[in-house]
Amino acid sequence: xxxxxxxxxxxxxxxxxxxxxxxxxxxxxxxxxxxxxxxxxxxxxxxxxxxxxxxxxxxxxxxxxxxxxxxxxxxxxxxxxxxxxxxxxxxxxxxxxxxxxxxxxxxxxxxxxxxxxxxxxxxxxxxxxxxxxxxxxxxxxxxxxxxxxxxxxxxxxxxxxxxxxxxxxxxxxxxxxxxxxxxxxxxxxxxxxxxxxxxxxxxxxxxxxxxxxxxxxxxxxxxxxxxxxxxxxxxxxxxxxxxxxxxxxxxxxxxxxxxxxxxxxxxxxxxxxxxxxxxxxxxxxxxxxxxxxxxxxxxxxxxxxxxxxxxxxxxxxxxxxxxxxxxxxx
Length: 330
Prior knowledge:
The chain is mainly alpha-helical. The chain has helices spanning 3-49, 54-90, 95-101, 103-111, 114-131, 135-167, 174-212, 219-244, 254-281; strands at 287-291, 306-310, 317-318. A three-stranded antiparallel sheet has the order 1-2-3. It is elongated. The termini are far apart.
């Protein structure tokens, strides 16, 4: 085979790779732009509300850390995109040597997986706040909590393997990295599906109780439903990542295109959850469920029945009085 035909084959691969990288960067930039706008709005709302409690400061610091990681990821991918143009069309480098040049970018892409278990932590925390005081839900919540722990360990394992691979390029660790990263994505997806399902079950019971009791659906219940719907969208995004990961393209997989987008979505989702919580607090702040002493939903108003008031704060429930509020600030 002549060198001319080899060069032509290399040019085709480079052209296909450039198209894939361009689409990836455009999509990632679009979602990163949305992320920036939401982050600015979230920061304004939080600072206006005040970071008066340790919980609110912790949450704000975590959201800021996630945004910083996503920003570093986007900046690294943008620099990597420019570098690939130079390598492909200005200073041509053989495929065998390109992996070493892009090692830093692959390490950043592994580190940004931290956003996944932080996002899962927010979702599980919300589920615990909303449902943890009910004994019937508490044992269920330990399942997503256990999965969250496994997700964290899997993400940390991926980062450690990636660091070792960068320090020792001669080691064939790509298969181990793919396995640990895929495991982290699957565990993250299962964590979100279970946590969202528990919140959904709680929301459904509240809504049914209000309907039976002929009580108007409150803002709180509507926000609960929005939490479930946004959680379902995030779960769908997680499923798409896994499916796209096995769809081959002329260069790489479709998952390589969507993964950077999903990283931005992982950062956006907690902000959406917390903004919904703030919105709910500004429109009444209480969700009611009508139950009898056996814990069965009923619409019969009798002395044995009670209203369970569900707060979107970090702990506690309120009394029957809708004006009484409890729980620490989020």
